[in-house]
Amino acid sequence: MRYFSVVLLLSLNGLAGCLISSVNQLSQTWMSISPIQCMGNPWEQDWLASHDNDYESYPADPTTPELEAGEKEIIRDYFARQGVRIERLDSKQFDGAVCLACSCPAGYTMFALIDDVAKDRMLELGFASSMAPD
Fold first, then answer.
1. CA angle 90, 41, 79 (to 5 degrees)
2. What are the tens digits of pLDDT across the range 28-42?
């Protein structure tokens, strides 16, 4: 009986390890979006609403297409509340035409690496499937 208990315990431990390993190895995919100007993106609007519309305090330099650390934190937090955990966030400037209207692209593409299970949610939020940024 003792032998059977030890074998059963070791088997269950091995099974649990396999289950944990498979959960940790979810497939991931890159998604992308072209943010717009004038703080018109959902994560910016959400931040402004909770900070008394204080545009000056938003942690981003509007003269550069790079996402800054504070802005990445805001983006990750926003999408976490939408049910999407972002593993990695990158941006890349594009050479396309940019106009001055607030509805125009801000001049860069934002890339988010997410678990495949959140892909449909990101598509609902305006993202597109993408290749990894260069």
1. 60
2. 999 999 999 999 999
